[in-house]
Write a structure and sequence with these properties.
The chain has about 220 residues and is α/β, with parallel strands linked by helices. It is about 35% helix and about 20% strand.
Length: about 220
């Protein structure tokens, strides 16, 4: 899931003031931002209250099922068309993909209410860790399901750096070295080792990414 945090409030106000907006519609997300407690119903209510205290009128709000789903966001637009039409701007409490999807679906100035941080794993409620950089050249098959590119602060592929001490990371001193973890898990699984990994091919990371599953079906 995409992990987000609230955007600095002064930047939000600056965005609204830049177009002279006084009436705002709020859009949240029922998936990632809800789980991260940044863009669910409680956060939208809190934002609406805060905007009201700052002298803005909130014309309405909605928590879309998946804000980065274009057709779903268009459906939310139709459900709340009157409130959106009455607004000068739309403030989106979702990841950057959700903001851009909303901007595609709604012909109003759209501003982000959150900052997108990383693709994360939910450790437990309210605790998230970055485990993947979506690099397009996965090595997890050789590293026992632990990504050295992401979880090693230095992104080292083939073993610990010289700063590792007693199995602990030099940078994140409260954490076990990623490569120690990899070796331990490989041993526990009775695997001999990952060998030497080739340099990462970062050209496989699609920027901007685009995948058309329909074309794939046609090919088959």
């Amino acid at each position: 899931m995409i992990i987000t945090r609230p955007r600095d409030w002064s930047r939000i106000i600056e965005n609204l003031e830049s177009i002279g907006a006084r009436r705002v519609f709020l859009m949240g997300c029922g998936q990632c931002a809800t789980v991260a407690h940044t863009g669910g119903e409680p956060e939208l209510r809190e934002t609406a209250e805060r905007l009201g205290e700052a002298g803005y009128e909130v014309t309405g709000w909605t928590v879309g099922e998946v804000t980065c789903h274009l057709n779903g966001t268009k459906l939310e637009r139709r459900k709340h068309q009157e409130a959106i039409d009455a607004a000068d701007a739309v403030l989106v409490l979702a990841c950057g993909a959700g903001v851009q999807t909303t901007a595609d679906a709604i012909a109003k100035p759209v501003f982000p209410g959150l900052e997108s941080l990383f693709l994360g794993t939910v450790i437990r409620n309210g605790v998230f860790e970055e485990r993947c950089q979506t690099c397009g050249d996965c090595v997890l098959d050789k590293t026992a399901g632990i990504c050295p590119v992401t979880t090693c602060p230095k992104g080292l592929l083939n073993g610990p750096c010289g700063g590792m001490w007693n199995g602990m990371c030099e940078v994140l001193t409260d954490r076990e070295c990623t490569h120690v973890r990899i070796r331990k898990r490989l041993a526990e699984q009775g695997r001999t080792g990952k060998g030497t990994l080739a340099p990462k091919d970062f050209s496989t990371a699609l920027k901007p990414g685009a995948v058309n599953i329909r074309d794939r079906k046609d090919e088959r």
